[in-house]
Design a protein that fits this description.
Elements (H helix, E strand, L loop, with lengths): L7 H40 L2 E9 L5 E10 L2 E8 L3 E4 L6 E5 L4 E5 L1 H15 L4 E8 L3 E2 L8 E3 H5 L15 H13 L7 H4 L3
Amino acid sequence: MHRWFDDSWFWLLAVLTAVVIVGLGALFIWLRLTTMRRSTLSALRNISDRLLHNVVLPDGVGGHIGIDALLLRDGRLYVLILRDAEGAIFGAEKMDQWTAISRHRRFNFRNPLHLIQDQILAVRALVPELAIVPRIIFTRHARFPKGRPEGVELLEEFAKPLRRLKKTTVPELDAQLEIIWANLREAAGVPRGKETLALQP
């Protein structure tokens, strides 16, 4: 007697169904986890003349250092640390560890102001001609009930004064600035014209 669980077509259909369900679930989770990251990069692209994201540069002492974002705007280079910490953030300039407290968890993380000092030194060694502006950028999920150290901003606050009314093309750079940016881009290992690839989430 033929039994349904002996049918190879049944098991093939069951396996395909399971693969589709797992794939859709993984896609949904990925979209949830990367939504804020993609939104942040989109906001930075809209205010930049040039932008590199998630790059590694020589640190000037024989090693390398990772940098979340380098944003060129109006001849100034913003060195950015990006943080998507949810809830109340408690931190000060001289504290080694900062604390984030949300409804679901509490965790400590290294004071980003210490880290960005090393990043500034590495960038300045490569492009000493540019004015360098360090910023620690938190997404809208963060709040600072006890105040924020200087140089720490929410993304919306940082982007607002740099926002353009309309941006349809990549802004032109003068010849000298183009050379400086090219040197930085090459140090980061990003080929000419491929900055957009470096921005993909």
